[in-house]
Amino acid sequence: RIQEVPACGPHVLSYVWFGMNTGSLVGVLLSGIVLSNYSPKWPYLIAALPAAMVLIPLLLGCLEEKLVSADEAAETRKKFYKQTEALFLSGMICLVCVGLTICGLVSDNIHVNGATATAAFL
Length: 122
Prior knowledge:
mainly alpha
């Protein structure tokens, strides 16, 4: 939409960056309080709530995506399936991220978490 009304571009970017910096400042200020009074897992759980709000416009269909026909979708899938290395690496990165997240949330043992992170690195 910025391309449709380029004069508003700087204002929109300023608004977005203001929100990001304000959220960062609030997060930094509250993280010490949360960490000193609760477990280290609480900041992640608290951050998951506003992060999940991204799903609201997604589920309401507000992304302004155009509908594609079945033939166009099949053609796009073919292009992705031809890139087997990229698909494999994307899948591996996803599995490693999910695995490290689960391990960090479930295990309190630093040796287990360290071994999992080392295995993920290799």
